[in-house]
Predict the structure.
Amino acid sequence: MFNKSLFRHAGLPVVAAGMLLLAGCASMETGKPEDIVAKRAQAFWNARAVGQADKAYALTLPSYRNGRPLEQVQRSFGNAFAIKGVTVVNVTCEVEKCTARTRLDVNPALAGIKVGTIATHFDEIWLLEDGQWWRHQDL
């Protein structure tokens, strides 16, 4: 015969752990890696475009965030150009690595010179870590 009080107290941590596990799974995106990375890359650059360093920072690898505090990253944003548009052109993936090709439309800040909007394309790396895709940033 088991003690109901013991079961009730032992069951509470199990239920709480189960709820945390489900909440964690719900926060992980599902779908094709290419679609997930495209969405996250777009979110990263949208945040950069409007100066939301904290939102962009949250999409970088946890190991990068452990080595660089947000304040340091905010200082590196700079104001050499104003981002006018961002488009993730395509994403190609391997098992745990994706490359996102992004088009960035910018207005450079050149003293006394108006050059208009310049478009540039670049590739950035996204890595799968602990079930989530993160933007790789050199330390």
User: Anything to note?
Assistant: Helices lie at 4-27, 33-49, 53-57, 62-67, 70-77.
